[in-house]
Input
Amino acid sequence: MIIDFHTHVLPPRVKEDRSRYVERDNVFAQIYSGDKVKIATTEDILASMDREEVDVSVVVNYGWSTHQLCVETNDYILESVARYPKRLVGFCSISSYDSESAILEVERCARGGARGLGELRPDIQSSRDAGKGNLEGLSRLLREHGLILLTHSSEPVGHVYPGKGMATPQLLYEFIQVFGDLPVVCAHWGGGLPFYTLMPEVRKAMRNVYFDTAISPFLYRPEIYLEVSRLVGADRILFGSDYPVISPGRILREIDTCGLTAEDRQLIVSDNARRLLHL
Output
């Protein structure tokens, strides 16, 4: 079984007219203001999965800046998962971490079949200004519903790209510590956070943290797979593509040719995700 832990879909109406949403939501504008940035629907991802021989995809939302867009896109993800429960797993999102509307939305999505919360944007959303207290409430809520947290991550150096943001290792380190024993997935290799696990206190804080490979070919050379396996263990890496930005097959080909053992490859493309998702 091959599981892609990081993909995105949006409703057909968004794909047909993105300009309306660029005007409505700052985060959407950061990512999708350019016409060349691809948008996929549920039907698109299912066709891609069949082509690339991906068995299950985790469909994650975005950390939108408006509650209304979170609800609208959460609805689409929940509907998609209900239609294709053997192919899709849904993660929903919220625009803030402590508002009553956000708490109610997490509860609604959990009842609707969501398995996680994300892709959150701690660099943009309220935790940065409101401090640690609001995250502790969110942590209790995630624990109560058995939800996984997936956060965006940003490299503190290097080239700029749409949606890169400032969720750098320093911010992620502070963010993650609030969640204790909850499973946290840092997208995009955690913006380089695995390299700081050579520091004992960081390694201790990362005990329940996983790192996905989303858009890896756009960020790092293929040696990243072996290096992060050495630093944190292959049992903490999740194959994720960031479809439709990049095809799952491109990343799978890197995984197949980068020098991983068969056992480590199996962990990354399947077993780690199966364990987290109880599949």
